[in-house]
Design goal:
SDR_fam; oxidoreductase; Sc_DH/Rdtase_CS; binds nicotinamide-adenine-dinucleotide; Rossmann fold; seven-stranded parallel beta sheet; about 250 residues
């Protein structure tokens, strides 16, 4: 498995969940991988477990100073990425709510991380990729950006719709400089993010019943499309959205 030999990737939200699975798979495919996360101790342990092809950087994607410092740190270490997976995100279960009941603070915390944080990651990713002569940026979107997947997901759905729009626009703006930007939209994928659903048998059964293949997604399910988009095999794919959802959005 050497489809990413010679690539250097930076993956945000890599301490756990989908980001960790992507980082692990990229290393297995021969890439050097910077695991970035706001949870410094957890991302340090995660990178250490992946061996010498991995290193950690602590960065809160919603803080421009922290994002700039993290990219500067990896660049000065000789790990300037040519693949960036802007994956970190939050879903504030129990706080996100129908619009009339949604606190502005919950809205802002969601938008600050999911949308502004993705924008900041993309901003510094584009600069890094331009210095490398091009590369691939992959955003983690969501089916709820397009279909309403939950009546209480107001801030989350709006933030992810913004991510999808951001991806298309940045793809168009930099296509002539060999930078590709694509969005992957996983459906229900069992990670710590969705423990409010996976720990409740009734909620879990309800969501799995809406997935035609009849099971929940796993982080490993999302890694194959990420490898394709990160590799040169994906060189004609840009500005697109790729679903990995067990058929959830067919209905
Ligand atoms: N799990 C799902 O069902 C699902 C479905 C669709 C989309 N997504 C999206 O996939 C992405 C990854 O989700 P996951 O399920 O792996 O979540 P997770 O909670 O398991 O992991 C998210 C990681 O992101 C990090 N993080 C959160 N805020 C951050 C910030 N401000 N700066 C840096 N790191 C930060 C966390 O510390 C954590 O390590 C998110 O963007 C999420 O919205 C998840």
């Amino acid at each position: 498995m050497t489809r990413l030999q010679g690539k250097t990737a930076l993956v945000t939200g890599a301490a756990m969940g989908i980001g960790h699975a992507v980082a692990e798979r990229f290393v297995a495919e021969g890439a050097r991988v910077v695991l970035a996360d706001r949870n410094g101790p957890a991302v340090g342990d995660a990178a250490a477990s992946l061996g010498p092809l991995a290193r950690a950087v602590t960065m809160d994607i919603s803080d421009e100073t922290a994002v700039a410092a993290a990219f500067a740190e990896v660049e000065s270490a000789g790990w300037t990425p040519d693949v960036v997976v802007a994956n970190a995100g939050v879903q504030l279960f129990g706080e996100d709510a129908p619009a009339a009941d949604l606190d502005l603070d919950v809205w802002r915390r969601t938008i600050d991380i999911n949308l502004t944080g993705t924008f900041l990651t993309v901003k510094y990713a584009v600069r890094a990729l331009l210095s490398r002569g091009g590369g691939s940026i992959i955003l983690t979107g969501s089916p709820t950006a397009v279909n309403g997947e939950g009546w209480a997901f107001t801030a989350y759905s709006a933030s992810k719709a913004g991510v999808h729009g951001l991806g298309r626009t940045v793809a168009a703006a930099y296509a002539d400089r060999s930078i590709r930007v694509n969005t992957v939209q996983p459906a229900y994928t069992e990670t710590p993010l969705v423990s409010a659903i996976s720990d409740d048998p009734e909620s879990r059964a309800a969501i799995v019943s809406r997935i035609p293949v009849g099971r929940a997604g796993t982080p490993a399910d999302v890694t194959g499309i990420m490898v394709y988009l990160a590799s040169d095999e994906g060189s004609f794919a840009t500005g697109a959205t790729f679903s990995v959802d067990g058929g959830m959005t067919t209905l």
